[in-house]
Amino acid sequence: IAASPNSFITAIPFGARPKFYAENPRANLLLAEFLKGFDFSDKGTVTAFYPVESKEEKKGRSREDGHSRKSAFNKPWPLVITGISDNFMKFLLWQQCFAIPSRVVWNFVSFNPKALPWVIAAFQGNIVRDNAPLIAEALACLKSAAWCDIPLQNLVKRITQAQGNFGNLVELTVRMTQSWHLLYIETKNLNNNKGLVFMLMGKPITDNLNFHQALTAHIQRLRVCLLNMDKIIGCDWCKNQNHPSHACPFPGVDSAWYGLT
Length: 261
Description:
Layout: E1 9-13, H1 18-23, H2 27-36, E2 44-49, H3 55-60, H4 69-72, E3 79-84, H5 86-95, E4 97-100, E5 104-110, E6 119-124, H6 132-147, H7 150-162, H8 169-176, E7 181-188, E8 194-201, H9 209-220, E9 228-230
Antiparallel strand pairs: 1-3, 1-5, 2-3, 4-5, 6-8, 6-9, 7-8
């Protein structure tokens, strides 16, 4: 797959986790049957298979892991599809989501090793509310904290110079924050009360996963007045990062639901 990512696509079921595959041991055959049922002139020789867990992943697991929330939704999530024609692949990726009533929802995604998340950090606090001037002020505080952080400047310089881009430390850091924006999100906590969050979003400045993770981790450690860092938990069901699992809106949608949007 790494050598030829364009020859494969993935199908991620809603609620993908080890339990889903334990309860649906023939999920790959169900997916292949679904795909072969399309009235499409040239589908190719469609084959769906389970990804193989690496030796490192197996070695890193302990018996206690089976009882943790994290391991309950452990990766790998997708089924892998191969032998598919280019046109059929484009069709599935364009439609992206297909719901089979009372059975499963398939979400089709391409392999793109350079695609990294835009979500940087989440913040909570008494000042978090849907107020445009306040959001602008909070974003200004975040950018100011980033611009003045010397270790962050050095990390940005290291990343950008590896790409052949050179410049003043501060200018490079300011350029990194040009795509930053704060997204106001209303979700719910476990007590069904409102949970208000500012989510910091920004375009990744590198396609190197290690550099990207180091950069976002450093930004998450910045000390920002009036804002408290909130852990990005995300949803185990639909894999979205803008709400927790207990607040996922999709299971509550009626029978007219045609899949994720």
